[in-house]
Amino acid sequence: MYIKVHERMGKKVVALCDKELLGNVYEGDGLVLDLKKYENFYAGKIVDEEEAKKHLENFDSANMVGKKSVSLAVRLGLCEKSEVRTIAKIPHIQIYKF
Questions:
Q1: What's the CATH number where 41 sits?
Q2: Which pTM was predicted?
Q3: Are 35 and 65 in contact (CB under 8 A)?
């Protein structure tokens, strides 16, 4: 998985994306998931699940794309499976902590 942590004005945004999805565009049901145009948002460093977990312990918001990334969020209790959306059969979740 690719992870990139964005920090701005005291806020931490974690972007996590399955490695094989980055650089591609997916379309379905009138929606577009453009991981080519927004590649820089997700393309940080490649991490395993354990390292990703560390970054997901403390964040203000998170964007996760792909089966591995999103299933990790569900297993960690960061979201419910019913909250996950799909675009062209690719799972996607945005999580905001207030």
A1: 3.30.1860.10
A2: 0.92
A3: yes
Give residues with Cβ within 8 angstroms of 3, minimum separation 6: 14, 15, 16, 44, 45, 46, 47, 51, 52, 55
Both tokens assigned to 73: 């969020």
What's the rounded Cα separation, in Å, for the pair 23 and 82?
Answer: 27
Per the CB < 8 A criterion, the answer to whether 42 and 22 are in contact is yes
Question: Can you give the residue range of the structural domain that contains 43?
Answer: 2-96
What is the per-residue pLDDT across 40-90, written as a single tens digit (0 to 9) for each? 999 999 999 999 999 999 999 999 999 999 999 999 999 999 999 999 999
Rounded to whole angstroms, the Cα distance separating 64 from 95 reads 8
| Beta carbons within 10 angstroms of residue 8's beta carbon | 8
**Type and span of the H or E element at 34:** strand 31-34
Total tally of structural domains belonging to the chain: 1
